[in-house]
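$ fold --in a.seq
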Amino acid sequence: TYEDRRSFTRISDLTEGTTATFAASVRSVRWVPSPRPRLHVVVGDDSGSIELVWFHARRGQDREFRIGRRLLATGEVRGFGSRTSVAHPELTWDADPSEQRHAGRIVPVY
């Protein structure tokens, strides 16, 4: 199968249950304590925000997420409690969608 990453979705237009690619900037980063701590990162564009979640985050992973840093994220949009989130998204850092070599591609999924 393949994922179509030729177009980007505004965060306000993301639909639960779909896989989407969107451009955003990091707004906040926090660890949620549990036996296996989770990393929660809120990202946003000019239309809204969404939470990215890593359930098995590695120590120090939060240092990659500087406030304001741009990224492209691809993943399945899901409801998580009262929030919309994407768990374990695929990221491309410092992303300007118009300049990314990954933009405008159809990507194989193994």
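$ fold --in b.seq
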Amino acid sequence: WNQVLPGLIATGVITNADIETLARYCTMYEQFLFCLAEIRAGRDQIELKHPETGELLNIKSTPAGLNSHKLAASMLRIEQEFGLTPSARSGIVAKKIDKIEDGIDPRIFG
């Protein structure tokens, strides 16, 4: 939130109507970081072994492994909407604003 919001305000890309979407993005980002930590710690797969022989039968992804891909895809869509990717920025025409929009709750933007 604190990393993304100032740039969005400065370029005029965000309005009051976008606050819920940005909040959802921040929640997904936090979840993605948790999944990433699990993956880096080696907790992204479970080995299923035969109970008697110990033979490896299958390898399954953990929820962290599966969710990281879903979260990354969902976050990318929001990043594109807000112009947070290089290709999205090339197509954005943003207006420069000198002050915060009237009617925006000052608690949101500090």
